[in-house]
Amino acid sequence: MYLVAVLDWYSRYVVSWAIDQVLEIDFVLDAVQRAFAVATPKIFNSDQGSHFTSSQYIELLNAAGVSISMDGKGRATDNIFTERLWRSLKYEEVYLHSYESPREARKRVSAYLDFYNYRRLHQSLDYKTPAEVYYQSK
Is residue 7 within 8 Å of residue 125, measured between CB atoms? Predict the structure, then answer.
């Protein structure tokens, strides 16, 4: 299973996400389009994976008038907030369960991301949830 998330860095709020069994670009574009339906950022950061350097992805961001930012090669810390989300998801959900099917994985990841956004307190956010900070800043 492959997961992509669009994260608001200021609040750590997961604006949109998608999961798929194949590593094709459609699920990435879908997640970005759904995120843009909520809010269009001034800058959009990603790593340098093939999805994020594809013409379809670049055209989508350019059409929305978004500046593109990409991490440096081998620089996982450039995208630290997303890396922290992956770590939390793995240690608090994925590694604790053995999913029987892709449907179960989607259901459990969805429940975790809901918990992450609306109920999980973050020390770096003064013990608020990402949703509290995200919606207060709008």
Answer: no
Domain count, the chain: 1
On the CB side of 40, how many CA atoms lie within 13 Å of its CA? 10
Mean pLDDT of 7-32: 94
Secondary structure element (H or E) that encloses residue 56, with its range = helix 55-63
- Is 122 in a helix, a strand, or coil? strand
pLDDT, one tens digit per residue, over 103-116 is: 999 999 999 999 99
Residue 46, amino acid: S
User: Could you tell me what percent of the chain has a pLDDT over 70?
Assistant: 93
pLDDT tens-digit readout, 47-95: 777 888 899 999 999 999 999 987 666 666 667 888 899 999 999 999 9
* 4-27: b (≥16 Cβ within 10 Å) or e: bbbbbeebbbbbbbbbbeeeebeb
**Among positive and negative, which fits the CA dihedral 124, 127, 131, 132?**
negative
**Encoded amino acid at 24, one letter:** E
